[in-house]
Design brief:
By secondary structure, the chain is of the alpha+beta class. The protein contains 47 helices and 27 strands. The chain starts with a helix and ends in a 16-residue tail after the last helix. The C terminus is likely disordered.
């Protein structure tokens, strides 16, 4: 409680002090704290030779923001000849557009990797932002973190009142400025790390350290700046000393290396052409979320994951339509070099651009290896101090070769604290403890352990593949096929860099702080206490002049300077003098710091927690200690303003303009940034609430009913307060309501209707409690709920009100969300019209915005789990035992299901209409009447339909979807040309599929049907009946189509889940809720090919067990006091997994001692159970509960009474169950080997439980434009246009970077696809570089053992092999195999692929026996999962045969090759090339065998003087191994004949003409039109197509 009261006092005081609110409020992290920021923006890759990287420039594609760019355009003719690859720079009429300096690699794609949404600035700010930009200095990577608190930095520096803006160069208020970070790269310009993270508040933390693109549009005055967390000052400066550095390949589109000027020029060139083609490309931008990539790797699960509700497709203009023809003005801008002279080091040169601000040079210096210890300095030119916020071009006398002096400035308390914090961050820069503890968005990555540092041909690399003999290929024992041990320690191998070089034993604030008055007047700012490694204890004074030793000791205060005092301006210089070890280790540490891959250090957008961690000593850390008590409450003394107004920030970002691409990027980036900050703050608050550190706003009520406000976020607990959910299932309903509500918020956000606002919502599960965190509607706390709700109902439908404005807004969402407008009766029997469920409430806030909340029933109810008296369910449902009583009545269908159902109905509609039309046509050919142009629309459609249906079913819903548009549009536009017969056809089809309109296909659901307490008027009786039928059909559709569809996909291996999370994701994509898991597992058990589904069955069972255990664990934990937490968790895990028959819980000692104390405390505990009840649980009891939970909740009968039986019966691994339960509950355990099978002592002790983390659910804002590019890119690749595909994917990568910053799962998918394309197009080193980034990102964002990470490791191994890095390839494959064994076990189809890869590489390095072990295991697994007659098995036989041939065991080789030959012959026929190849190989093997036999006979016959023919033993060539690797990984190189190429060209031209004709708006004939639409939007979900709009 202490903290809560303390916080209250603080809040009160702060409210008194700061009544005026500055333009915004900082993140709750003290800006003194340059932690690797969430908003970090880096992104360069560290490619091969030059490990340098440059941020991607923000060049925005064609559209220019209207006001700020003139239409004039100077085209640059042939960029490829631009000298030295100079790029173009785009500037706007106002000075506020700043072309970037020459050092930029010429990437012309919109992005600056990672600068996170910069939020909304008033014009002065945005102007600054505009000017700010990153420097990439000595080839280091830019770690551009954006200064978090724009204002405050400025305000603090210049003593401006919190609201005032430091004045800045003009940029008219309303003018939109488009920021193009353009690029000029002269080959050896020094790359500067533009803006290594501002340690926020170096002498001038700029108001501008915003990423450049922030300033694209100065926003409305009321805007709020989401503050940026300051970055760990970035690791830069790879080759410290030298000022100028070769170009880093990073900055090119998608990281195409810019080593050669040509590629840069080309990038620009292609950009210019792209403008021409932009329109064409974008029509392709809508692709179904499920486009499977060529060679079978599906788009990327996470991309398909939340099947983006894209239905607003028809309301938004296609990206890039407006502003399409505006060209960008292009002028040349040259950078220049200045010399920097800093105290104590040689002067060095730095490449700068006139557009840059002085502040950016500061950032570079704070990150350079040799100047990183300075934070408090100014730059002077000829004795004049430069203004931090001035652009370099405005400074008189600054030109090529000018000398800038670094001059040390006097400290203030704020500067001194910033300095100490910065030094601490430099000392901790390699320490992984933040990642293990899950703080500040740090997470783990182990790739570098397996690649020995960086991949690329950096100096450290061994010479390529020449020393093959020295490669040690033996895998660790536990990785070999058939091994039963599953060690845990190998999960987190100890990284060499983590034994950090100890520089100091202790650095902490002294107990003598703050200085007394008389010392303040001597300039003392604060006191530090240091213990050096040599064990010398010293007290240090931070004074205005710098740092010096004083004479105080721990017990005596004597502030006089010691003799000698070693006065130094920087703390590092002082420590260097008093501790030789510090001097040595600090410089070594900085060298290492600047060598790490940027992706290992950038913060992730959302926190990732690790479920295991090694034992780490807890070291003293002054900054962490200070944070724990101050900034964590959101108040810091050096920040003007108060806590952030989350609601204002979240809503303001949504209001940003979105007319063209630059605006949309800025908006999405702002939304994403604020959202990730809000999620972090909400998570911290929720933990504080459960830990009892926040005071309730209704403290007198019982604990379950309490509500909390912390940091402008409202927290409520998942209990049924005031019997609100009495009719829905009480506490159980109250527990699921928040997640349903979150799904509703996610959907409404995705539809994104202007003027309709939702609350920021985060659901946190922590220590057994569910906490909902929401932003606060302005004014809601001052009013009673009854007064504020003007739409919807607060009592589940008794009193219902409506409001015209809400109806108008919600009407816009009704089509994409398939919600039907309907009438209900209120308590006075009046009809009220609604366009949502009754619980959905509309409240107008004091800010005048229309908010909707309580969206828990956005989707229609799931009738399979909602038995209603007197309602008969369809046959399919009854067969499977539905309807079934569930614990609560809030079961909804998922949005994916609704979409799939509508799509299904759509095809049905098409087929019906087509059939009827064909019949009509046959009946009356002659009377169809010729319209003006000789082909009536219906006939056109009918023809094409007919040909389709003759080709078999309407092909994959592609054509169907497009043609209905034709007919329906013609009818809907109702221009009298349609004969009544066709109209009749449509009407019948509509009726048959349950459409609510009879002129067009339109299916919608009424979410209030079967809602307890909701009544409908008589007038809509028939409509309600239809709706009920529709809901039953949807419930039946889930059982009869979706579940079998999922199982079929698993059988075809198009879906390959590897663990619980990926299985859940696969189910969710098909709209199957987890409560159907039991049904899915049962369905699998009854499937004919059951053995081929073993892996899915096993994952299903372990998911059933761990989910049931999680449900029990949740209530179990609610009865545990904080002091007993680790004992309780270890006891639960022992009962759950240990073979030890009777584990005994260790009660915390204090509870045993004093019973009195307990009485008082009980009230604080949210549970009402006795606090020690948990200790009496036994394994038998727990497993009995798990089985009954599985039966009740999932309707599945588990046959096991304890962990051993479960493992035995279902072939499960206990380590896998441990991983699953830890991930689901947030438990973190100690990394060590656990003995689960000992019957003599329990597996876990309380020391093994290290932590319990929150499990957080939140909305994931999407980058829509980038997503469209990504999908079009995938589609292009599938059609075989690799180069175009590659360009689109690069474009997508840049847009993603623009919105999400450098780290995100979608960027990971992009990089993986790019790498694959690079590989196919023969650029192996580029493939390696992109895939390395994909692996690092996957480890950081998804987790080190996530199934996606495992696959990324496999791809990387292939590219390493292609780059002749054999030992690295093997290490990576071994790592992937280890992870897979841990996550699932050996018996998985993916393991066959992995083992084939390992076997082939081992074959390549002539380790034949090892190779056979893996290949034969792969053969066995393939035969099991693909059937012994499949082509995969034939290939497997062939691979094994090759190894036997290399061993000269021809008999075995022949045997395997014959098997393969037989399969090829049966499957493909005698004349297929595969069969012929195999038969050739058989002949060859037979010859070899015969030759060998002859030789042997010769030896037997003639003894030692035999005449021996030399035998041909073939060590396989690398090329042949690589070829086989490509085949098994599904990468096919298709040789094209000349004729093919010509056909392709013709096809491309035809398409281009089509596009042209569309542009010129010619009326196409319907047949053509169908074709054109087919291309424009291959198989879009029906929801995308507004049938009623007339054609363009």
């Amino acid at each position: 409680m202490g903290n809560g009261l303390f916080a209250n006092c603080c809040r009160h005081v702060t409210d008194l002090i700061f009544q005026t609110r500055s333009s915004d409020s900082p993140d709750e992290r003290s800006p003194l704290l340059p932690k690797p920021p969430r908003s970090c923006t880096v992104c360069p890759e560290v490619p091969e030779a030059a490990q340098h990287a440059g941020p991607y420039p923000d060049v925005v594609p064609s559209e220019a923001v209207a006001g700020s760019l003139q239409k004039r355009s100077e085209r640059i003719q042939d960029l490829s000849e631009a000298p030295g690859g100079e790029g173009l720079v785009t500037v706007c009429a106002q000075s506020c557009l700043r072309p970037a300096e020459a050092s930029r690699a010429a990437a012309v794609l919109p992005t600056d990797l990672g600068a996170r949404p910069t939020g909304l600035l008033d014009h002065a700010q945005s102007l600054r932002a505009c000017q700010s930009c990153m420097k990439l200095e000595d080839g280091g990577s830019a770690h551009r973190s954006c200064c978090r608190q724009e204002h405050e930095a400025a305000a603090d520096r210049e003593d401006v009142a919190p609201g005032a803006h430091p004045t800045g160069q003009g940029c008219g208020k309303g003018q939109a400025a488009l920021c193009l970070d353009a690029v000029l790269a002269s080959p050896n310009s020094g790359l500067k790390c533009r803006g290594a993270a501002p340690s926020p508040g170096s002498p001038g933390t700029p108001s501008s350290a915003l990423p450049a693109s922030a300033g694209k549009t100065p926003l409305a005055q009321r805007a709020v700046v989401p503050p940026f967390s300051p970055g760990e000052v970035s690791p830069v400066a790879r080759d410290a000393g030298s000022g100028s550095v070769g170009m880093g390949p990073a900055a090119c589109p998608g990281g195409r290396s810019s080593r050669d000027p040509d590629s840069q020029a080309q990038a620009l060139l292609s950009k210019q052409q792209k403008k021409k083609r932009k329109k064409k490309k974008l029509t392709l931008a809508e692709h179904p979320a499920g486009v499977a990539l060529m060679n079978g790797s599906g788009p990327h699960d996470s991309l398909k994951g939340e099947k983006e509700p894209r239905q607003n497709g028809h309301e938004e203009p296609e990206p890039g339509e407006d502003g399409n023809d505006q060209e960008v003005i292009v002028i040349q801008d040259t950078g220049f070099t200045v010399k920097i002279c800093a105290p104590g080091i040689e002067p060095f040169s730095l490449q700068v651009s006139p557009q840059e601000m002085v502040q950016e040079i500061h950032q570079v210096l704070m990150d350079r290896e040799d100047t990183c210890h300075r934070t408090c300095f100014s730059l002077q030119l000829d004795g004049n101090v430069l203004d931090n916020f001035a652009e370099l071009k405005t400074i008189e006398g600054l030109q090529e070769g000018s000398l800038l002096k670094v001059v040390e400035e006097p400290y203030t308390v704020r500067e001194a604290r910033i300095h100490v914090r910065h030094i601490r961050d430099l000392l901790k820069s390699l320490d992984p403890s933040d990642a293990f503890n899950g703080v500040d968005c740090n997470s783990l990555s182990f790739l570098s352990v397996f690649t020995e540092g960086d991949l690329g041909d950096s100096g450290k690399r061994k010479k390529k593949g020449t020393e093959m003999e020295q490669i040690d290929c033996t895998p660790p024992e536990h990785i070999l096929p058939g091994s039963k041990e599953r060690p845990l320690c190998a999960l987190q191998p100890q990284n060499r860099d983590w034994k950090p070089l100890q520089c100091l034993k202790v650095l902490t604030m002294s107990g003598w702080n703050p200085p007394p008055g008389n010392r303040k007047m001597h300039g003392d700012l604060m006191y530090l206490y240091v213990i050096t490694v040599e064990d010398r204890h010293v007290s240090i004074t931070a004074s205005t002049r710098g740092f010096y030793l004083n004479q105080s000791t721990a017990y005596n205060f004597n502030p006089k300077p010691a003799n000698p005092s070693f006065l130094s301006h920087s703390l590092v210089e002082l420590l260097n003098q008093i501790s030789p070890t510090f001097k040595k280790n600090f410089s070594a540490l900085q060298k290492k710091r600047v060598q790490r891959h940027p992706f290992e250090r950038i913060a992730t957008p959302f926190q990732v927690y690790s479920w295991t961690a090694p034992q780490v000593e807890h070291a003293m850390d002054c900054v962490r200690a200070e944070d724990a008590y101050t900034s964590r409450l959101g108040y810091e003394e050096h920040i003007p303003g108060q806590t952030r107004d989350w609601n204002e920030e979240l809503q303001t970002t949504r209001e940003l303009p979105r007319k063209n691409l630059p605006e949309r990027l800025l908006r999405e980036r702002a939304i994403f940034k604020v959202h990730s900050d809000f999620t972090a703050a909400a998570t911290r608050g929720a933990m504080a609430v459960i830990d009892g550190n926040v005071m309730a706003i209704n403290p007198s009520e019982e604990t379950k009913m309490q509500m909390f406000i912390w940091n402008n976020i409202f927290f409520s607990l998942g209990f049924d307060v005031r019997d609100h959910y009495k009719d829905f299932g009480g506490d159980v309903a109250a527990y699921v309501a928040p997640t349903n509500d979150l799904n509703g918020v996610r959907t409404y956000n995705a539809v994104d209707v202007e003027g309709l606002y939702t609350l920021g919502t985060v659901v946190v599960d922590y220590r057994g409690y569910r906490v909902t965190a929401q932003s606060i509607i302005p004014g809601i706390l001052e009013r009673e709920q009854e007064q504020s709700v003007i739409y919807g109902s607060i009592d589940f439908g008794k009193t219902v009100v409506s409001h015209p404005k809400y109806l108008e807004l919600l009407e816009k969402t009704s089509r994409p969300l398939k919600i039907q407008k309907h009438k209900v009766l209120n308590d006075k029997n009046e009809e009220v019209e609604l366009c949502s469920s009754v619980e959905c409430k509309g409240i107008i806030g004091n800010d005048g915005r229309h908010y909707i909340l309580d969206l828990l029933r956005t989707f229609p109810p799931d009738l399979n789990f909602l038995p209603v008296d007197g309602e008969e369910m369809p046959e399919e449902c009854k067969k499977m035992g539905f309807p079934k009583q569930h614990r609560h009545k809030l079961c909804c269908l998922r949005q994916e299901l609704v979409d799939a159902f509508v799509e299904h109905r759509y095809l049905l509609f098409m087929k019906l209409a087509a059939l009827q039309l064909m019949q009509q046509k046959a009946n009356k050919q002659e009377s169809s009447g010729v319209l003006e142009n000789g082909s009536s629309p219906e006939n056109g459609t009918a023809d094409s339909e007919k040909s389709e249906s003759e080709d078999g079913k309407i092909d994959d819903n592609v054509t169907g979807l497009d043609q209905v548009k034709e007919l329906a549009e013609t009818i809907a536009s109702d221009d009298g040309t349609v004969d009544p017969k066709s109209r009749e056809v449509i009407r019948n089809a509509c009726k048959a599929v349950g459409s609510i309109s009879d002129t067009s296909f339109d299916i919608r659901f009424n979410p209030d049907i079967f809602s307890p307490g909701v009544r409908f008027p008589e007038s809509s009786k028939e409509e309600v009946q239809d709706q009920k039928q529709l809901l039953k059909d949807a419930a039946a559709f889930l059982l009869s189509c979706q579940i079998p569809g999922l199982v079929k996909d698993c059988l075809d291996h198009t879906v390959l889940p590897m663990d619980g999370a990926t299985l859940a994701e696969a189910m969710h994509q098909r709209g199957i809720n987890m409560r159907y898991l039991g049904k899915v597992v049962n369905f699998i058990a009854k499937t004919p090919g059951r053995a081929q589904l073993d892996h899915i069955f096993k994952i299903g069972i372990s998911e059933l067990i761990t989910r049931s255990a999680k449900h029990i664990f949740k209530t179990y934990l609610q009865g545990v006091e904080l002091s007993g937490l680790s004992a309780a968790i270890s006891h639960f895990l022992n009962c759950f997994l240990s073979s030890f028959p009777n584990p005994i819980a260790h009660l915390p000692a204090d509870e045993l001692v004093s019973k009195k104390k307990n009485k008082k405390r009980k009230n604080r505990n949210l549970g009402n159970a006795d606090n020690t009840a948990w200790a009496s649980m036994t394994p038998q009891e727990l497993w009995k509960n798990i089985c009954s939970e599985a039966k009740n909740y999932f309707d599945f009968s588990l046959e096991c009474e304890n962990a051993d039986q479960a493992a035995e019966e279902y072939n499960l691994q206990k380590i896998t169950l441990l991983r699953e339960i830890s991930l689901k509950t947030g438990v973190q355990i100690l990394l060590k080997e656990y003995n689960f099978d000992s019957r003599h002592k329990p597996t876990f002790t309380e020391e093994d439980i290290l932590n319990i983390f929150p499990v957080v659910k939140h909305v994931n804002p999407k980058a829509s434009d980038a997503f469209h590019f990504f999908q079009s890119g995938q589609a292009k690749v599938q059609q075989g246009f690799l180069k175009e595909g590659c360009e689109l994917i690069n474009e997508a990568l840049n847009l993603f970077n623009n919105v999400y910053g450098a780290m995100h799962v979608e960027i990971c998918a992009c990089l993986r696809l790019l790498a694959r394309l690079n590989y196919i197009m023969g650029d192996y080193s580029e493939a390696l570089s992109n895939q390395q980034k994909a692996v690092l990102m996957s480890e950081r964002v998804l987790g080190i053992e996530h199934p996606n990470t495992i696959q990324e490791y496999m791809h990387l191994a292939l590219y390493c092999f292609a780059n002749s890095q054999l030992s690295t390839a093997l290490n990576l494959l071994y790592r992937a195999r280890y992870l897979m064994l841990l996550v699932f076990g050996e018996d998985h189809p993916e393991m066959a692929l992995l083992d084939n890869n390992i076997g082939l590489v081992l074959h390549g390095v002539m380790e034949y026996d090892l190779s056979l072990r893996f290949l034969e295991n792969a053969l066995a697994i393939s035969s099991k999962y693909h059937g012994s007659k499949s082509l995969k098995v034939a290939l497997s036989h062939h691979l094994v045969a090759r190894v036997y041939e290399s061993k000269a065991e021809f008999r075995s080789a022949l045997q395997h090759e014959k098997e393969g030959y037989t399969i090829y012959k049966n499957q493909l026929g005698e004349h297929h090339e595969k069969t012929k190849e195999s038969s050739e190989y058989l002949k060859y093997l037979t010859q070899q065998a015969v030759a060998l036999q002859r030789t042997m006979n010769e030896i037997y016959k003639n003894g030692s003087n035999a005449n021996i023919m030399p035998l041909k033993f073939t060590a396989p060539s690398m090329a042949s191994v690589l070829e086989q690797l490509n085949i098994i990984n599904g990468i096919l190189f298709i040789p094209l004949s000349q004729k093919d190429l010509e056909n392709l060209k013709a096809e491309v031209q035809r398409r281009q003409q089509l596009q042209e004709s569309i542009k010129s708006g010619e009326q196409l004939e319907p047949e053509d039109k169908a074709v054109e639409e087919k291309e424009a939007e291959p198989s879009m979900p029906s929801a995308e197509i507004p049938l009623t709009q007339s054609s363009a």
